[in-house]
């Protein structure tokens, strides 16, 4: 889902859900708390490639798939991980809409065996809503290792629903889970899932309200049971309250619900929503206590100790700096090594023979020359962009899978606050390093528009993998690691300044951080490789062909001489203001399609525009190190790419998208000009 | 002489005043679930009997003030009466849970009736029999016969003032943001839930807290809305699901 190409597809999930409904015999919804391995199970069941990570909120939209099991077509809806089905935050709302409007035949609730009490809360809510529920007790292997044993049979008896033990990562128990789900769906009429009853006084009040609803309402919103509606109204659920208000007898029902709510508040001393929440937690807690046995080990596990080290300030900050430095060095060393190795192989074995072959085949004309450009484009893609992307993606997947990013969010909360955000925003911001597109969508976890604008702006300024490839493969590879580090420093300063400024300018306040913290997990090599491949695939299938075709067009423009007509227009900005060759400006413009394209085009242009010299690095004959610096700086700052811009537009609106876009372009030109001026002054 | 209704009002005023919020007719009418005119009538009566201080905006000098913002306060007489009532209520709760073995909710409901009918003599005997308890089953303090409230164990403080490795129990969560309140509740951050602070980031950074098996990072501003008290031993009932499953 990381791909920039996915944007258009995401727009109408509910419509797609309808389509799947029509095709499938049954629709199952997958639900669970964040980070219980829901997406992993979804991938396993459906064979799809949804990205997973060891932090909350990776999936904000729901994912859909049609799969076949035991000869029956089953639609699967993967709801975003959520703690509850309220109407409070976007993740909760999306999950709820997926259930209420999607009307699945069955809800598979995935429970984390390590934290059963908290996880059961959501399951109880689904039972309250009156859906047939089946539970997957996931991560049982981890729980057993940590000394927690769950009596699965007893849990099933108490809940009155099937419970299947699973280990999502290995795929254990998933066949059984699907089998049981299908059985349950087939015999749907025979099953009645009985919701848990609350304390007597609450229960009689809920019943009173439900009876009134049954008597007065012709039908309930979303076809909910009357009991479910009564509970939601007592919880003062915004969406349902407003839906009921528009119904004929709705006002009376709301009136009664207010009365009963006040009664409950009067007796219990808390709002009805809190009293119900407490009840549910109470039930969940006593169930967990009854079915689980735990041995506590005095010695903290390695994961816990690591976790303490990374969240404690004294050790956490040095570790963070060390981690960033390690990432930088690893990308630099690893990427450069791969790039050099590839270059030897490519030029001697592929590029030169191909060029000779093409000239002999088609003769030395504009077409064959343009084909040569395309081959060089491919070389730039595979030889420069790919090595750096590969190394970076592996590191990113590793970090995501361990759960280290959690600690980072904790450590940087204070800093983020200065920028008008809170630690929770660190997560979309960090995922922006992979690709800006899903990161901008991820800002939905933030509760206010203000936060979303600030976060989106900062995300756009965060160098994504493509830009990191440009910086490392362009600047670091040709001009050395120091200028690259300087460039990252400049980006960091720009990011901070932008955040400080927006926090000052935009009215309103930032809200507080409330985030679950997950322990470290042993990263799975299989998952790291899979994620790396999913991300690379996007690059190889979309960016690479684009660059090859683009290079061909570029070559054709050059061979026919038209390119110089284009560069004349750019001259005032590129040559005079930025101090870089006009043709490089052309590469910058194409970078809007994909940032890797800017680098690839620059390399291709250099190879062809510098006459004669083809040895070592033609880029250095085409541009000075200072010019490469200015080029990379502009490329890193200005509007990320067309896909990111599209998502900005959709998520925030055209005004915000255009102003964010325009200001980054302006900022890039100002910084690029400054870089040129400083270089002029020092030489 | 106080009627049962008047006692209910005094008790409500005492409870609402206890958490430092503004006392006004609107809040009172919400809390007691009665209409505003009823509340105003009763307030006038309580005022004329000398239990509260309250001025009607139409008649007095504070004309310009906003309706909902005017404060009601208990007089010394009112305080005494309210505390006596609270004492009877909480003593009754102790009796009902400790001796009769009722669960918390039922005890609360029954105590609402007991509080109005206990004579001073019965009240005294009850306290004696229970060994002069200091808190009710929910952990709230029981005023002594003179109306003094001892709060050695009831030091209430904000979670954001905690140091690493300190433990406490959530007393209440401020109500200004009902959504935050509800969200925290769904995560299990509820009154009467034990909470442990594992780590405090310096320079006003977030807190790492543990509730049950779960760790949460809470920003300072969120933590400042959570008030805590010392942990107390809670009355333990049997597992809830056994009787719920019937």
From TrEMBL, chain A:
Mg(2+) binds at residues 43, 46-47. This is Ferrous iron transport protein B. Residues 25-187 form the FeoB-type G domain. GO terms for cellular component: plasma membrane. GTP binds at residues 32-39, 57-61, 78-81, 138-141. It comes from Candidatus Solincola sediminis. Probable transporter of a GTP-driven Fe(2+) uptake system. GO terms for molecular function: ferrous iron transmembrane transporter activity; GTP binding; metal ion binding. It is found in: Cell inner membrane; Cell membrane. The chain crosses the membrane at residues 319-339, 379-399, 419-441, 453-478, 484-502, 539-564, 576-593, 598-614, 626-648, 660-681. Belongs to the TRAFAC class TrmE-Era-EngA-EngB-Septin-like GTPase superfamily. FeoB GTPase (TC 9.A.8) family.
Automatic annotation (TrEMBL), chain B:
One of its GO terms (molecular function) is DNA binding. Keywords: Activator, Cytoplasm, DNA-binding, Iron, Manganese, Repressor, Transcription, Transcription regulation. It is found in: Cytoplasm. The keyword Iron applies. It holds the Pfam family FeoA. Its main location: cytoplasm. Residues 2-55 form the HTH dtxR-type domain. It comes from the Bacteria. GO terms for cellular component: cytoplasm. Residues 1-123 form the HTH marR-type domain. Belongs to the DtxR/MntR family. Homodimer. This is Manganese transport regulator.
């Amino acid at each position: 889902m990381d791909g920039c190409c996915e944007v258009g597809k995401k727009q109408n999930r509910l419509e797609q859900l309808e389509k799947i409904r029509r095709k499938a015999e049954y629709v199952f919804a997958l639900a669970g708390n964040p980070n219980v391995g829901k997406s992993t199970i979804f991938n396993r069941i459906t064979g799809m490639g949804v990205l997973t990570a060891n932090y909350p909120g990776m999936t904000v939209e729901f994912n859909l798939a049609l799969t076949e099991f035991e000869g029956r077509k089953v639609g699967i809806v993967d709801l975003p991980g959520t703690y509850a089905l309220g109407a409070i935050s976007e993740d909760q709302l999306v999950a709820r809409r997926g259930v209420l409007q999607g009307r699945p035949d069955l809800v598979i609730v995935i429970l984390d065996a390590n934290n059963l009490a908290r996880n059961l809360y959501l399951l109880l809510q689904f039972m309250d809503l009156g859906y047939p529920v089946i539970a997957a007790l996931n991560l049982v292997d981890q729980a057993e290792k940590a000394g927690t044993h769950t009596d699965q049979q007893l849990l099933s008896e108490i809940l009155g629903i099937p419970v299947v033990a699973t280990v999502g990562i290995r795929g254990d128990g998933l066949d059984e889970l699907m089998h049981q789900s299908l059985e349950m769906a087939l015999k749907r009429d025979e099953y009645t899932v009985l919701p848990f009853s609350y304390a007597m006084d609450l229960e009689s009040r809920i019943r009173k309200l439900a009876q009134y609803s049954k008597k007065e309402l012709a039908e309930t919103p979303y076809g909910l049971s009357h009991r479910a509606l009564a509970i939601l109204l007592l919880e003062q659920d915004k969406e349902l309250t407003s839906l009921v208000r528009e119904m004929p007898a709705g006002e009376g029902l709301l009136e009664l619900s207010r009365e009963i709510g006040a009664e409950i508040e009067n007796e219990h001393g808390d709002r009805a929503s809190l009293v119900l929440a407490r009840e549910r937690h109470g039930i969940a807690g006593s169930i967990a206590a009854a079915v689980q046995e735990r041995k506590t080990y005095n010695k903290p596990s390695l994961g816990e100790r690591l976790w303490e080290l990374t969240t404690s300030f004294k050790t956490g900050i040095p570790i963070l700096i060390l981690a960033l430095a390690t990432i930088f060095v690893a990308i630099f060393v690893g990427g450069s090594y791969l790039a050099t190795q590839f270059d030897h192989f490519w030029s001697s074995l592929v590029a030169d023979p191909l060029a000779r072959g093409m000239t002999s085949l088609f003769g030395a004309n504009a077409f064959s020359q343009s084909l040569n450009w395309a081959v060089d484009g491919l070389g730039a893609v595979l030889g420069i962009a790919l090595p750096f992307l590969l190394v970076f993606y592996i590191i990113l997947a590793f970090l995501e899978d361990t759960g280290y990013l959690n600690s980072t969010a904790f450590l940087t909360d204070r800093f983020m606050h200065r920028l008008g955000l809170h630690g929770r925003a660190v997560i979309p911001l960090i995922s922006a390093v992979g690709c800006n597109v899903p990161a901008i969508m991820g800002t939905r976890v933030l509760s206010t528009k203000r936060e979303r604008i600030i976060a989106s702006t900062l995300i756009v300024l965060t160098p994504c993998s493509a830009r990191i490839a440009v910086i490392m493969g362009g600047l670091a590879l040709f001009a050395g690691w120091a200028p690259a580090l300087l460039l990252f420093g400049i980006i960091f300063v720009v990011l901070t300044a932008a955040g400080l400024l927006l926090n000052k300018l935009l009215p309103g306040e930032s809200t507080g951080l409330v985030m679950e913290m997950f322990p470290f997990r042993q990263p799975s090599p299989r998952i790291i490789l899979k994620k790396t491949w999913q991300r690379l695939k996007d690059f190889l299938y979309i960016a690479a062909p684009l660059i090859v075709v683009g290079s061909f067009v570029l070559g054709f423009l050059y061979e026919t001489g038209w390119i110089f007509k284009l560069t004349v227009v750019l001259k005032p900005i590129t040559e005079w203001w930025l101090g870089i060759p006009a043709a490089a400006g052309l590469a910058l413009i194409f970078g809007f399609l994909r940032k890797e394209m800017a680098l690839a085009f620059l390399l291709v242009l250099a190879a062809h525009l510098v006459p004669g010299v083809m040895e070592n690095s033609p880029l250095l004959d085409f541009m000075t190190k200072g010019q490469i610096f200015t080029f990379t700086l502009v490329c890193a700052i200005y509007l990320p790419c067309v896909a990111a811009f599209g998502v900005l537009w959709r998520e925030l609106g055209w005004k915000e998208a255009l102003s964010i876009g325009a200001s980054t372009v302006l900022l890039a030109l100002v910084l690029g000009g400054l870089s040129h001026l400083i270089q002029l002054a020092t030489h | 002489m106080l009627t049962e209704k008047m006692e209910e009002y005094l008790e409500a005023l005492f409870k609402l005043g206890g958490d430092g919020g503004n006392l006004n007719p609107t809040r009172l009418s919400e809390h007691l679930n009665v209409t505003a005119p009823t509340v105003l009538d009763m307030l006038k009566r309580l005022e004329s009997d000398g239990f509260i201080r309250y001025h009607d905006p139409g008649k007095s000098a504070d004309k310009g003030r906003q309706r909902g913002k005017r404060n009601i306060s208990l007089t010394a007489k009112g305080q005494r009466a309210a505390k006596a009532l609270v004492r009877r209520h909480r003593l009754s709760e102790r009796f009902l849970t400790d001796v009769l073995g009722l669960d918390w909710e039922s005890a609360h409901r029954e105590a609402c009736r007991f509080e109005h009918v206990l004579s001073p003599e019965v009240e005294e005997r009850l306290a004696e029999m229970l060994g002069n308890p200091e808190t009710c089953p929910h952990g709230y303090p029981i005023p002594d016969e003179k109306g003094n409230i001892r709060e050695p164990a009831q030091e209430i403080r904000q979670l954001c003032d905690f140091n690493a490795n300190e433990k406490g129990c959530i007393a209440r969560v401020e109500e200004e943001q009902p959504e935050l309140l509800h969200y925290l509740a769904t995560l299990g951050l509820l009154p009467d839930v034990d909470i442990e602070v594992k780590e405090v980031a310096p320079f006003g950074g977030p807190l790492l807290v543990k509730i049950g098996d779960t760790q949460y990072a809470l920003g300072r501003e969120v933590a400042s809305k959570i008030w805590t008290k010392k942990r107390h031993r809670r009355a333990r009932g049997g597992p809830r699901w056994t009787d719920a499953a019937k």
